[in-house]
């Protein structure tokens, strides 16, 4: 008898940790190979481990069905939070390199979001980028402050912009990623036609600010919209 195919909980509460190997695997009522076999799990059926006893593992599927299997035959799944943890690890390292700066606890939430590590890094990068065409420290600082205003403002308005983030989340992720890369590039290139002669620095500043805002909105991770 094969175990019924299971479906992920609609609320996302079920988090599988392992899957059946290619070719499937048998399941028992008790952790004893001499005992009664209750089912045969099809290949790639996913489940979570709720108990271990020696070489045996008690598993549970998303529909609540439970049984014992040989632990050595299970295929471990990558945690769904691995990507988030990776981003957090990079952010932690950057925080360490930058002196672990954090907004004071006394600041209101909107100000902490606006002048957090992300907006500060973005504004610093924008200023450094504009120094290449301008060779002006003053222009670089001006661009940094303007960028902090743009990105920091979007971060400060996060709660108000939740309906916008929700609508953007309906667009397939690949399309959003492509748009988040191609639109800023297209806009930046469009700023440097014949009419830009004599206004290169100003056009470069506009291109950096507008393209960065586009990329921020389109490439924003969905899990941060909630």
How would you sum up this structure in a few lines?
The chain is α+β, with helices and mostly antiparallel strands and 226 residues long. Helices cover 46% and strands 14% of the residues. The strands form 2 sheets. The protein has a 5-stranded antiparallel sheet, with no helix packed on it.
Detailed description of the structure:
It is a single chain. Helix content is 46%, strand content 14%. It has a five-stranded antiparallel β-sheet with strand order 6-5-4-1-7, with no helix packed on it. It has helices at residues 82-97, 109-114, 117-134, 137-156, 162-168, 173-190, 200-219; strands at residues 18-19, 25-28, 37-41, 46-53, 56-60, 66-70, 75-76. It is built from seven helices and seven strands. The protein has 226 residues and is an alpha+beta fold. The longest helix has 20 residues, at 137-156. The model is unreliable at 4-11 (pLDDT under 50).
Instruction: Report the order of strands and helices.
Output: EEEEEEEHHHHHHH
Categorize the overall geometry: elongated
- Distance between the terminal alpha carbons, to the nearest Å? 42 Å
Spatial strand arrangement across the major sheet = 6-5-4-1-7
The biggest beta sheet, please? Answer: 5 strands, antiparallel
**Share of residues in strands:** 5-15%
Number of helices: 7
Report mean pLDDT, rounded to a whole number. 79
> Care to count the β-strands?
7
Radius of gyration: 26 Å
